[in-house]
Amino acid sequence: MRVRHINPEGLHRSPAFSQAVVVEQPTKTIYIGGQNGVDADGKVVGPTVGEQSRQAFRNLATILESEGATLANIVHWRIATVAGQSFDEGVAAFQEVWNRSDPPPAITVHVVASLGPDFLVEIDAVAVV
Amino acid sequence: MRVRHINPEGLHRSPAFSQAVVVEQPTKTIYIGGQNGVDADGKVVGPTVGEQSRQAFRNLATILESEGATLANIVHWRIATVAGQSFDEGVAAFQEVWNRSDPPPAITVHVVASLGPDFLVEIDAVAVV
Amino acid sequence: MRVRHINPEGLHRSPAFSQAVVVEQPTKTIYIGGQNGVDADGKVVGPTVGEQSRQAFRNLATILESEGATLANIVHWRIATVAGQSFDEGVAAFQEVWNRSDPPPAITVHVVASLGPDFLVEIDAVAVV
């Protein structure tokens, strides 16, 4: 069994945390920390839920791809959005990235008072390969 | 190791997601997506936290039973309720279903601004068999 | 494979729940339920986010130590704080306990409407040893 903290290329690198953790047993489990609409330079990509959701999904995919996985490998996930934002834009971003023929597990969506500064959406996930 | 998305009989079936995911290694882990007070027809069962909590617990139990497990197999879970609702009704629903002689792990309860439309409570969980 | 509910010395003991659950396979996974700023007597330690965060981190560490682990073994975690509180105090408490040379996985922080009575912060976590 190995536990590796990963920071794949294409994601913002922070000295304060790693983006995801990989646990390899017989199975490999990938624990992905809260992803926001932040690009590889650490900048928020835009002021709308749609833009931020699309980027957060890209970040999830980048992490998963770096471990030979895709969004279809997610087994548990949670989305938080900030109160007063458009739910529909988030759903639209989700529908763009998700494969309808291989539906994901049920999502937990919480509408919260706020997240980090300028963040309108945050997604964390567990994937198994 | 196998990963199976499941939609047990007795739960609402959605083309958009599966209700839970089973991961079998030497151990079987069941990741249950956010369950709401929604019946097998996909309808919200009523306008109170008490009714919705009871139904969400029934949905959890249905999923667990379909994999040979019970609520006692839960190892991690989270409950979200919408601000302004009766906390006591949710606690009462919980006390009806939980076995006092086999107490559950500590729950994380978040009171959030909102959940999906008409949802007052949402529960997700991880169980190990 | 064994699943054990644990209530380590130094933590509040509740008849209603266990503080954490240990799953041993080839790997040991520790699922830690929502920890608050509550001492071993079950009392809230103070009215500020700083005090409560420090205590919640101590509780996490106590649970992990009872299983031969430390905060560095955490693979997934979530912090919720109540709206209107000082984010900076929570961050300061975090920086006191965390080892900068061994950064943690990305945290999901949700600012919620409320938690249990008098609770300003709640942390849950999954650790792998």
TrEMBL record, chains A, B, C:
CDD domains: YjgF_YER057c_UK114_family. SUPFAM superfamilies: YjgF-like. It comes from the Bacteria. InterPro entries: RutC-like_sf, YjgF/YER057c/UK114. Belongs to the RutC family. This is Enamine deaminase RidA (YjgF/YER057c/UK114 family).
